[in-house]
Amino acid sequence: MAVNDKQDIGARHSNDLSARLRRIEGQVRGLQRMIEDGRDCEEIMIQFAATRAAFRKACLSFINAQMDRCLEESLCHDEDPRRAIGSLARNLSRLV
Known about the structure:
With 96 residues, the chain is mainly alpha-helical. It has a single domain, classed as Metal-sensitive repressor, helix protomer (Methane Monooxygenase Hydroxylase, Chain G, domain 1, Up-down Bundle), CATH 1.20.58.1000. The protein is built from 3 helices and no strands. The longest helix has 36 residues.
């Protein structure tokens, strides 16, 4: 895989993640308006659940991109993949 291909893959993951985060930002603003307007509790809870699910998917997208990047870099630099996996595991522990 050429260096430019790796950069393109990273850009695609970045664009996807940015789009997801912008949608979540809009959902949070919508939640704020719903609360300020005194909307029905059930409607608000549904939006909270949808926002949480969207955030979870964004987080998983980020994790997948990081796993790909870490493993590709270790393979391209002839490093021990276990070292990259250990580093990734330490970073993932911050999310749990």
